[in-house]
Design a protein that fits this description.
Length: 256
């Protein structure tokens, strides 16, 4: 018997706004701290307003449920790794800026591939990336890139992202499961981003988000964090930079 999930149907937020509104609660997808990005939260709520054709669900008709959501955005990029945005925060700002300016766009950027952490199905990650490729094809975009949040980086929060993304298993495949899905679809590891998504809050905020106490200033590792959190009690500030890594997929064929 196959252990792969059955195919799901892709609908954009434009095609099925009812399914898009149903969605998946954020707390079933992300750890609480990840919902408080300084820059990202300024823009995230406008994705389905200004880029609705780039947001989609994967719908399980038999179960009448939204199994996953894909968030993407178009960019203009010349194909040079050195010219990719310097962070996730910069990526989302660039996407809105270029779209609003009417610039010619040629690249699809994955922003989030979301499925419930407590009910992830085999094969769903690959289906999500396949859905993103379909969105790129519909929009006539030739390139596909992703600033990936490595799944297992939380197990090694003290290891620099530059080192972590080089780790491979004995069979030669990348150690990280999410990076491995990308690589199996032909993507390559491009630029590590040690300071990619910025999240700040008061000490009380961070204690609430992580269910930890931070009794003195210093650096802390915390549950599901990919890197240490810096606490400054004098400033009443918790400062965290989440690392990512650019994965660059093969160019897509021209639209028919």
């Amino acid at each position: 018997m196959s252990d792969q999930a059955p195919p799901l149907t892709l609908f954009t937020a434009v095609e099925r706004p009812d399914l898009w509104e149903r969605g998946i609660p954020s707390d079933r997808i992300w750890p609480e701290y990840n919902l408080h990005g300084d820059v990202v939260n300024q823009w995230w709520g406008m994705l389905d307003e200004e880029m609705a054709d780039y947001q989609f669900v994967l719908y399980d008709e038999e179960a009448d449920m939204v199994a996953a959501e894909g968030h993407t955005a178009p960019l203009r990029w010349d194909g040079e790794d050195a010219h990719l945005p310097e962070s996730f925060d910069a990526t989302i700002v660039q996407a809105f800026s270029q779209l609003r300016a009417g610039e010619p766009l040629d690249t699809l950027c994955a922003l989030a591939a979301e499925s419930p952490r407590d009910a992830r199905r085999r094969g769903l990650a690959a289906q999500l990336l396949g859905g993103m490729r379909e969105i790129a094809a519909r929009q006539g975009l030739r390139r596909f890139v992703a600033p990936v949040r490595p799944t297992w980086k939380e197990r090694y929060p003290l290891t620099p992202i530059e080192q972590y993304v080089t780790w491979r298993r004995a069979d030669g495949e990348l150690l990280d499961p999410w990076l491995r899905v990308h690589e199996r679809l032909g993507a390559r590891v491009a630029t590590p981003l040690p300071r990619s998504l910025h999240i700040t809050g008061t000490v009380s905020d961070w204690e609430s988000w992580t269910e930890m106490a931070f009794p003195q200033s210093g650096d802390y590792v915390f549950p599901e964090g990919l890197a240490p959190l810096r606490i400054d009690r004098d400033l009443d500030l918790g400062d965290y930079w989440e690392p990512n890594v650019w994965m660059v997929h093969p160019e897509l064929p021209p639209a028919a």
